Amino acid sequence: MPPQSLATGQSAPVSIGIDFGTSNTVVAFAHPDGRAEALTFQHDGRSSNNFVTALCFWNELSPGKAVTRVEGGPWAIEQFVEATTAFRFIQSFKSFAASATFQETTIFRERYRFEDLLTTFLNTLVKHADGRLDLSAANIVIGRPVTFAGRMPDDDLAMQRYRAAFERLGVASPTYVYEPVGAAFFYARHLKRDATVLVADFGGGTSDFSVMRFEQVAGQLKAEPLGHSGIGIAGDVFDYSIVDRIVSPRLGKGGHFRSFDKELSIPNHYYANLARWHQLAMMKSNGDLKGLQDLVRSAVEPEKLEKFIEIIEFDMGFALYSAVSGAKIALSSEDETEFRFAGGDIEIKAALKRRDFERWIAPDVARIEASLDEGLKRANTRAEEIERVFLTGGTSFVPAIRKLFAERFGEERLVSTDQFESIAYGLALIGQDAQKERWGVREAA
Question: Is the pTM value of this prediction over 0.90?
Answer without folding.
Answer: no
